[in-house]
């Protein structure tokens, strides 16, 4: 059986012209389920005659369709970001080309009509030949795009045999290098569709909106005899090609108003949902319904840790609900059209969508783009075919406001031709493509990972290219969310709001693409590139999302929600300022509730009377009447949903702000007076016991501790390891991961202890001088640490603070400070001041690739206690950051998966003055200058108290 079609650069053949995706009252049957399956190592080794009725597949395995064969025990997944995992010789692919044969025998349902029918495949990776009852139907290419084949003339009531031969590699693989797992198979739905004679073959809705008149223009383009009815609008039997104007409510991501109707003929009725909106590029701005929009967006791949891109519908819904609840208002469907159901959800719940074609040739970049299909005429029809199938399938979704030609495919005649076809076919939506750097054939200027300085320059229109200067600008990818990060979101938002034509961006990306595995002990973890033995891979670069693989939000999603909240709450002169940053909506759907806390304890609460604030405006309201407090008084105001919505319940917090009202109380009495006592190799000072030789704290109130000493190291984050000149590389070269402590002097005085040390890396001349000044009273032990650089430091510092260890039984955590989640210098907007409780275990953020995590900022005090109530209390003068873990920073640094982290017998504490920021250097700009931590003279003061089970220290 010839497989020459596998390397043909042209589109597949035999399929019908592309059309809109829709369901109707015509009969249909899903062919999803259990199929027979056989995997061969190559096309040449695949069995002959699989399409015959009498072919014996009884010895084959079974497989679930939709599904990927690598995730069902056949072959292994592989991940690359850029590099093709095969030799680059387009359009040729390896002869060792895994080939999966699928067979299904099915009967027609009773009463199946004797009329034309189609077989529809919504996604097959990467190339397939299809037979029905021994007859070849055709060949598919374009993995994330539908193919339909005429099948009615071949059907029989019983014993239909559908055979599909799927090849892992094909010419199409050169166009599908999309920074994701290489996974093969029939991974989206397969269905048999009856097509009644005289039915609706295809249709295109037009639902424009005039924001000046408030009128909508409605029409349908379809074959003669097709009608449109929208009872809610009084539209009945509007013929194809006719238009009607009428008052309507417009559709937007903030108010996704849909009108339900039908496109119909005498033979078929198709339910439709209509959203009225008009998208234009005007005055250098992208406008929807006459208003500038700001994309607070994310890039979304389709992924599930067990099913890959065969994503069950409930997880698409989970994505949309999480997005809406975290103030995401836009999605770029990177880098292919999603399952159509996702777009239905965007229409329903309200998300702006950039719908992207199934196209990327990134692997040619490392070859200087030599041989890139984008400028090779033999690939021209394949490019057009992919875009046609994208546009025709998705043309009726109001959520789609831009078409994207693809991603990272450089430039060339094929992309220009694809843009021209799209602009002619659908002039109602602008065309996006980041790779057209000169903006010769696109309608918006787009960049990825531009740093803040470049975005500012673009905002100032400091650009010699006149065409680019005239266009709206967006970041199709920014704020690479790999591991702990991104940092710097706030500064991007400030630029988006400063320059009107800088219209937001799309964080890379929504979801970590980890695949679920278990270690030898049965513990589950998430795998990334290289974990399946791939020779070529890009490691954990596929783990770069705002949510973890199981869709648990990472701290970055909370940060996104806070930075891009559509209502901003702050202080005004004598009151509260409410600023509405929605694109369109007023604030009438929100209720504003306040609470007032004294040192983190709520003492009053109520509802704030706020008149409706229109979009783009601010309003000041007076403070509520607040009681007197003895400690630090903070007013928190929350904007909550007033009623249930489709995506969240009433009282869901959309936005919040905090206003300081009264400062913290003055510190209590000085921690002095206890004498320094010497006994059997120990120095005793108040509740503390110290090693007489080293001056290190070894006990606090009877609790064994490994006392605090200077610490400069953190387990590098993905962003620390990123860029051409990684911070982590500099830190290791400077030996900061293996510092040595030299005790210069232990100076015992009548009622104080001073320990002088020098902390430095081996083999190098620079270091840090650290002096520990201890004093005490009967119950408290006070430490002031003075640090000063010694010599010339060659790099920034990961952190500046103290490390200590306490008994592992102290697993309960309570603190008054910023929380409840982790916070870092350039990623801390989501942390609010309050009193929080947790456990040591719950403080950890389980990043798929272990790294620094779990920092809590601005703690006024911290308590760690056992189940019985014993423990320690630490107070700052005024504040400190802390992390608490059951493993050391070195353990965290050495781990490659979460299962590598084994709890020890101690709780390891970092008590920090500061940490280096996070940035986004894993792919993008590093830490902004204001958040970089440099070696400098500094001081940190803490007070330690033992806690007895009776709670003597409060």
Question: Which tags fit this structure?
Answer:
954 residues; mainly beta; 10 helices; 37% strand
Question: Can you characterise this structure?
Answer:
The chain is mainly beta. Helices cover 10% and strands 37% of the residues. Strands 49, 50, 51, 52, 53, 54, 55, 56, 57, 58, 59 and 60 form a twelve-stranded antiparallel sheet that branches. The N and C termini lie far apart (81 Å).
Q: Count of helices? A: 10
Instruction: Provide the structure class.
Output: mainly beta
N- to C-terminal distance: 81 Å
Average pLDDT score: 97
The number of distinct β-strands equals 60
Uncertain regions spanning at least 5 consecutive residues: none
Residue fraction in strands: 35-45%
Short description:
The chain is mainly beta and 954 residues long. 10% of the residues lie in helices and 37% in strands. It is built from ten helices and 60 strands.
SSE diagram, text form:
Elements (H helix, E strand, L loop, with lengths): L27 E3 L2 E8 L20 E5 L12 E3 L18 E8 L10 E5 L2 E2 L1 E6 L2 E7 L5 E4 L9 E8 L8 E2 L2 E3 L2 E2 L3 E5 L8 E8 L4 E8 L4 E4 L4 E5 L3 E5 L11 E6 L4 E6 L4 E4 L2 E4 L2 E2 L2 E5 L13 H13 L4 E3 L7 H10 L2 E5 L3 E2 L18 H15 L5 E5 L8 H13 L5 E2 L12 E4 L3 H8 L6 H4 L3 E6 L10 H10 L3 E6 L7 E4 L5 E4 L27 H9 L3 E6 L2 E6 L9 E9 L2 E8 L9 E5 L10 E9 L11 E10 L13 E4 L2 E4 L2 E4 L5 E4 L2 E2 L1 E6 L15 H7 L6 E9 L4 E8 L6 E10 L4 E10 L8 E9 L4 E8 L12 E8 L16 E10 L5 E15 L3 H6 L11 E10 L22 E10 L7
Helix pairs in contact: 1-2, 3-4, 5-7
């Amino acid at each position: 059986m010839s497989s020459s079609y596998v390397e043909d650069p042209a589109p597949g053949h035999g399929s019908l012209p592309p059309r809109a995706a829709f369901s109707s009252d015509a009969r249909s049957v899903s062919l999803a389920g259990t199929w027979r399956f056989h995997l061969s190592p190559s096309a040449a080794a695949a069995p002959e005659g699989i399409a015959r009725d009498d072919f014996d597949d009884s010895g084959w395995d079974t497989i679930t369709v939709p599904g990927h064969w690598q995730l069902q025990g056949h072959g292994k997944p592989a991940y690359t970001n850029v590099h093709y995992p095969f030799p680059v010789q387009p359009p040729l692919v390896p002869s060792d080309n895994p080939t999966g044969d699928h067979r299904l025998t099915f009967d027609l349902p009773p009463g199946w009509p004797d009329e034309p029918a189609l077989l529809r495949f919504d996604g097959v990776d990467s190339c397939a030949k299809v037979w029905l009852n021994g007859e070849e139907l055709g060949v598919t290419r374009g993995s994330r795009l539908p193919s339909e084949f005429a099948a009615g003339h071949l059907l029989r009531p019983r014993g239909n045999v559908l055979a599909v031969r799927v090849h892992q590699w094909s010419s199409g693989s050169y166009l599908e290098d999309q920074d994701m797992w290489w996974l093969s198979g029939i991974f989206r739905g397969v269905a048999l569709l009856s097509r009644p004679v005289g039915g609706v073959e295809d249709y295109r809705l037009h639902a424009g909106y005039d924001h000046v008149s408030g009128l909508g223009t409605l029409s349908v383009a379809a074959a003669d005899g097709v009608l449109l009815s929208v009872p809610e609008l009084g539209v009945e039997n509007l013929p194809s090609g006719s238009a009607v104007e009428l008052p309507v409510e417009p559709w937007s991501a903030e108010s996704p108003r849909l009108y339900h109707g039908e496109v119909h003929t005498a033979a078929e009725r198709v339910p439709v949902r209509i959203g009225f909106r008009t998208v234009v590029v005007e005055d250098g701005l992208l406008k929807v319904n006459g208003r500038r929009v700001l994309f607070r967006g994310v890039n979304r791949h389709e992924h599930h840790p067990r099913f890959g891109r065969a994503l069950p519908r409930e997880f698409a819904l989970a994505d949309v609900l999480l997005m809406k609840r975290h103030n995401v208002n836009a999605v770029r469907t990177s880098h292919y059209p999603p399952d159509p159901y996702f777009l239905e959800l965007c229409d329903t719940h309200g998300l702006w969508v950039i719908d992207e074609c199934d196209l990327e040739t990134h692997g040619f970049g490392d070859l200087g783009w030599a041989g890139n299909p984008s400028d090779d005429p033999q690939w021209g029809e394949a490019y057009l075919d992919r875009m046609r199938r994208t546009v025709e399938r998705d043309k009726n979704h109001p959520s789609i406001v831009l078409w994207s030609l693809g991603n990272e495919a450089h430039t060339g005649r094929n992309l220009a031709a694809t843009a021209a076809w799209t602009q002619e076919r659908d002039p109602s939506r602008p065309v996006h493509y980041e790779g057209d750097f000169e903006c010769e054939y696109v309608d918006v200027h787009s960049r990825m990972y531009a740093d803040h300085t470049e975005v500012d320059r673009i905002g100032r229109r400091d650009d010699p290219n006149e065409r680019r200067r005239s266009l709206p600008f967006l970041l199709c990818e920014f704020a690479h969310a790999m591991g702990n990060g991104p940092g710097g979101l706030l500064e991007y938002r400030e630029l988006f709001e400063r320059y009107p034509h800088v219209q937001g961006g799309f964080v890379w990306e929504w979801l970590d693409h980890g695949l679920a595995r278990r270690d030898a002990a049965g513990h589950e973890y998430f795998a990334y590139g290289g974990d399946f033995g791939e020779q070529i891979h890009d490691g954990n670069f596929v783990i770069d999302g705002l949510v973890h693989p199981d869709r648990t939000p990472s701290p970055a999603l909370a940060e996104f929600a806070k930075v891009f909240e559509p209502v901003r709450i702050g202080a005004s002169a004598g009151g509260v300022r409410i600023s509405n940053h929605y694109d369109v909506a007023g604030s009438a759907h929100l209720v504003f509730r306040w609470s007032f806390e004294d040192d983190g304890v709520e003492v009053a609460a109520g509802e704030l009377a706020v008149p409706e604030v229109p979009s783009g405006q601010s309003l000041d309201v007076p403070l509520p009447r607040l009681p007197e407090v003895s400690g630090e008084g903070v007013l928190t105001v929350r904007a909550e949903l007033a009623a249930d919505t489709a995506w969240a319940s009433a009282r869901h917090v959309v936005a919040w702000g905090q206003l300081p009202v009264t400062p913290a109380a003055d510190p209590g009495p000085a921690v002095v007076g206890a004498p320094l006592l010497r006994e059997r190799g120990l120095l005793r000072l108040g509740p503390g016991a110290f090693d007489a030789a080293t001056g290190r704290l070894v006990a606090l109130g009877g609790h064994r501790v490994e006392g605090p000493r200077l610490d400069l190291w953190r387990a590098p984050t993905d962003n620390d390891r990123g860029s051409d000149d990684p911070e982590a590389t500099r830190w290791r070269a400077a030996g900061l991961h293996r510092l040595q402590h030299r005790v210069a002097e232990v100076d015992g005085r009548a009622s104080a202890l001073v320990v002088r040390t020098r902390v430095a890396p081996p083999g190098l001349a620079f270091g840090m001088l650290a002096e520990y000044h201890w004093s005490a009273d009967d119950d408290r032990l006070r430490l002031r640490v003075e640090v000063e650089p010694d010599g010339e430091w060659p790099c920034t510092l990961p952190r500046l603070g103290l490390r200590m260890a306490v008994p592992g039984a102290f697993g309960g955590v309570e603190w008054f400070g910023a929380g409840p989640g982790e916070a870092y210098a350039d990623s801390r907007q989501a942390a609010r001041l309050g009193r929080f409780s947790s456990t040591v275990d719950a403080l950890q953020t389980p990043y798929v690739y272990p790294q620094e995590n779990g920092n809590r900022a601005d703690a006024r005090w911290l308590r760690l206690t056992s189940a019985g109530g014993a423990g320690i209390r630490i107070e700052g003068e005024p504040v400190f950051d802390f992390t608490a873990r059951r493993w050391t920073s070195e353990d965290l640094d050495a781990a490659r998966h979460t299962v590598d982290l084994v709890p020890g017998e101690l709780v390891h504490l970092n008590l920090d003055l500061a940490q280096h920021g996070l940035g986004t250097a894993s792919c993008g700009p590093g830490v902004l200058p204001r958040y970089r931590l440099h070696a400098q003279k500094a001081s940190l003061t803490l007070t330690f108290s033992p806690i007895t089970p009776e709670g003597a220290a409060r």
